[in-house]
Structures are given as structure tokens and as C-alpha cells.
From TrEMBL:
It comes from Flagellimonas maritima. This is chorismate mutase. Pfam families: CM_2 (PF01817), DAHP_synth_1 (PF00793). The lineage of its organism: Bacteria, Pseudomonadati, Bacteroidota, Flavobacteriia, Flavobacteriales. Keywords: Coiled coil, Isomerase, Transferase. One of its GO terms (molecular function) is transferase activity. The gene is aroA. InterPro entries: Aldolase_TIM (IPR013785), Chorismate_II_sf (IPR036263), Class-I_DAHP_synthase (IPR052899), CM_dom_sf (IPR036979), CM_II_prokaryot (IPR002701), DAHP1/KDSA (IPR006218). GO terms for biological process: chorismate metabolic process.
């Protein structure tokens, strides 16, 4: 993508002393709720006030947003607090209404990013706009879809672009609502280093007590900002109650985050080093998660062996695995000695798991 540095200009022009902060309720519920939260946030680090006007719900019957009337409430937010406003759009009609009510920042949601037809419709509706447009990653972990959405909007002469990393859906039960898959965001950064990237820890975690840790990881990976859902009464919010924080907690999170600034050569070195270390931390966590899954499979094998009264150690199978992994390791630049030591340790842990089951 040529002249991609144009996409960062809108963020650089803001000359912020801290990462960009987009905050506000998951959903606009009432005029009083929208304005009360905005007034609680107006003297904080928040740069854009977000509120969902149209809410795409997985199943019908849930609260799907107040609709266009909420845009008038956002206009009042701007008039009364001076905060710039942001909301999600999912089709041409949403875009037209949002522009009519002078919303400053529009984002395309994860459910919309999966459809090139929807993205193209929005791109056509926004063609040539100077509004800031952010694109959430698609629901599924597909980097090409994410980049394709960026390219469609950039081709529509929309230069003030950025992306939002909100995690990816999975059938597996994990501690996250949407697993981060940090490596996809890292790969996107490597392809387009000038594309601003915002982290959405609210949707990644689904739990307010995890928001700080995910936010810190994002900043360690040189993300440009955070989108954090904020409500004065989170437990009684009409949508996504568990992942919203109070304005007071948001202020505390921003105060506690370690924000590294590149002010001189030493600071730049430390920033790059911390970024690489953060990447290692992400991968290490994935390794532990993968090993845990492997041992669960071993437990299943142990149960089968117990039923059939089969010995735990199967030498032919083990030798075949070793040979294959040594070759795979060499293709990744790993020494034979390292691969042997690693898989012997994994194999021993697997044997331990199976013996526990067989000896019960």
C-alpha cells in the first residue's frame, strides 16, 4: 500500500502525551446515561467518547441498540463536554446518519469485517471523507480479511485509517472472551508499521479485572491506544456488563500503565527491547497453553491404554516422533540437540500423566 504514512498523520497531528484513549459505554441506553458518563470522562485522558448506537447481536431478542436517537445524545456530549465522539457503523444507512450528526470517528465491527460486501458498501459511503475510520479485526483469525478491509477503505480515498485489535472467537474455552492471537496483530504491524493500531481489552477479556494486564501487553507491543468500555454502573449495563469499568477505574488503569516513550537513543533501545520481550511473553504463554492441550490428549491415550491393558511406553511410536521432529526443527533453525532435549522432557511428562491414570 503506497504512502501508508498518510494513515498515521491523523494520530501524529494530535501530538498526544499518552496513548490514544477511546472510552464510553458499550451501548447508549438513555440520554441521561450517555451524558452522565461523558461528564465523568471529560477531564480524564479520554480523547474520544464511544457509545454503541446499533448493536449487532448474535441472536435476536437481545438489546440491539437505541438507534438513530442515540446520535443526538452524542451531539449533546460534544456540545456539553467538548469530547469528540465515536460509534460503530455496519451499513450505508448507519454511515449517512453518523455523518449527518457529525460523529468524529467511525469504526467497523468484527462481524462486518468478515464480509467484503459490507466493507465495500461502507467504503463507498465514506469515499473521500476526512473522518477517522477504524477497522476491527474479523471475528475469525484471518489476517487477509483484516488487511483486505484496510485496502478497500484506503482505495476509497479514506486516508485517516487505523485498526482495532479486539481478539478472535474460538470454540475452545479459555480465560479470554476472544483470544488475543497477538501474533496476528504483530504481523499486521510488521506489514504496515505506519498503520495506527488500537487495542480493545474489553472485548478480548470479557472481564473487567483482566483489562489492565491486556492493556499493558498492548502498550509493550507498541500499540497506539486503547478502547475501553466504561459505565458508571457496569453491573447493570444493558449489554456486556462484565467487561465494563467505572470511570474511576479507567483513570486508575491509565495511571498505573507503564508507558514507554522514545525520547532519546537509550529510550528507543529499551522500547524496542521491551517490544521484543513482550512478543516472547506472548509466545511463551501460547507454548504453555499448547503443552497443556497436549497433556490432555495424553490423558485420553492413557485411558485407552488402561482399558486395553497396553504398556505406556511404545518405542516405535516414540522413535518415529523424534525423527520427524528433528527434521521439522532443522527447517526452523533448531539444533538436533535442542529438539531432542525438549521432546524428551515432553515425552517424560506425557508418560507421567499416563502412568497416573493407569495406576489409579
Amino acid at each position: 500500500m503506497e504512502n501508508s504514512k498518510e494513515m498515521r498523520k491523523w494520530l501524529d497531528d494530535m501530538a498526544l502525551p499518552h496513548p490514544l484513549v477511546i472510552a464510553g459505554p458499550c451501548s447508549a441506553e438513555t440520554e441521561d446515561q450517555v451524558l452522565k458518563i461523558a461528564h465523568n470522562l471529560k477531564d480524564t485522558d479520554v480523547n474520544y467518547y464511544r457509545a454503541g448506537i446499533w448493536k449487532p447481536r448474535t441472536r435476536p431478542g437481545n438489546f440491539e441498540g437505541v438507534g438513530a436517537i442515540g446520535l443526538k445524545w452524542l451531539q449533546k456530549v460534544k456540545d456539553e463536554t467538548g469530547l469528540k465522539t465515536a460509534t460503530e457503523v455496519a451499513n450505508r444507512a448507519h454511515v449517512d446518519l453518523a455523518l449527518e450528526h457529525d460523529v468524529d470517528l467511525l469504526w467497523i465491527g468484527a462481524r462486518s469485517t468478515v464480509s467484503p460486501f459490507i466493507v465495500q458498501e461502507i467504503a463507498d459511503a465514506l469515499e473521500g471523507t476526512d473522518k477517522i475510520v477504524l477497522i476491527k479485526n474479523p471475528v475469525n483469525p484471518d489476517l487477509s480479511l483484516w488487511l483486505g478491509a484496510v485496502e478497500r477503505l484506503y482505495s476509497a480515498d479514506i486516508k485517516n485509517l487505523g485498526v482495532i485489535h479486539r481478539g478472535f472467537s474460538t470454540y475452545e474455552k479459555t480465560k479470554y472472551r476472544n483470544i488475543p492471537e497477538w501474533q496476528l496483530a504483530i504481523e499486521l504491524q510488521s506489514k504496515f508499521p505506519d498503520l495506527p493500531i488500537i487495542n480493545d481489552p474489553s472485548h478480548i477479556t470479557g472481564k473487567r479485572d483482566m483489562i489492565f494486564d491486556v492493556s499493558q501487553t498492548a502498550l509493550d507491543l507498541n500499540f497506539d491506544g486503547l478502547m475501553i468500555e466504561t459505565h458508571y454502573d457496569p453491573d447493570n449495563a444493558w449489554s456486556d456488563a462484565a467487561q465494563q469499568v467505572t470511570p474511576q477505574r479507567l483513570v486508575q488503569i491509565m495511571n498505573d500503565l507503564r508507558i514507554r516513550k522514545e525520547t532519546d537513543e537509550e529510550a528507543e533501545y529499551n522500547s524496542k527491547l521491551n517490544n521484543l520481550r513482550a512478543q516472547i511473553d506472548v509466545i511463551d504463554n501460547q507454548l504453555i497453553d499448547t503443552l497443556g492441550k497436549r497433556m490432555k490428549v495424553s490423558d485420553g491415550i492413557g485411558k485407552l491404554k488402561k482399558q486395553r491393558n497396553v504398556a505406556v511406553l511404545q518405542s516405535n511410536r516414540w522413535n518415529a516422533i523424534l525423527g520427524k521432529m528433528i527434521l521439522e526443527g532443522e527447517s526452523q533453525g533448531l539444533s538436533e540437540e535442542f529438539v531432542l532435549r525438549m521432546f524428551k522432557a515432553i515425552h517424560q511428562e506425557s508418560i507421567n500423566h499416563q502412568e497416573k491414570i493407569i495406576n489409579k
